[in-house]
């Protein structure tokens, strides 16, 4: 397992929102837009990976009151 610090999903979404806002500006250069697009795609990948980890940790209650991993 990796020892690198993972960002919270909320932080990733906030950063992605900033990237999108910057992309929507009219005065952005083509080079900046490519760089921001790449950054946004990397953030989306991290968001998806984080969501996958959370989904795997979800526990479901069974009819006897026990639980098991999703």
Short summary:
The protein is 61% helix and 9% strand. With 70 residues, it is mostly helical.
Walkthrough of the structure:
The protein is mainly α and 70 residues long. It is built from 2 helices and 2 strands; from the N terminus they run ααββ. It has helices at residues 9-23, 30-57; strands at residues 59-61, 67-69. Strands 1-2 form a two-stranded antiparallel ribbon. The radius of gyration is 18 Å and the shape is elongated. The mean pLDDT is 83.
Largest sheet: 2 strands, antiparallel
Content of β-strand:
5-15%
Mean pLDDT across all residues, rounded? 83
- The beta-strand count equals 2
From the N-terminal CA to the C-terminal CA, the straight-line distance is 20 Å
Q: Which shape, going by the Cα principal axes? A: elongated
Strand order of the largest sheet: 1-2
Task: Name the features.
elongated; mainly alpha; single chain; two-stranded antiparallel ribbon; 2 helices; 70 residues
Please give the structural blueprint.
Blueprint: H1 9-23, H2 30-57, E1 59-61, E2 67-69
Antiparallel strand pairs: 1-2
Helix pairs in contact: 1-2
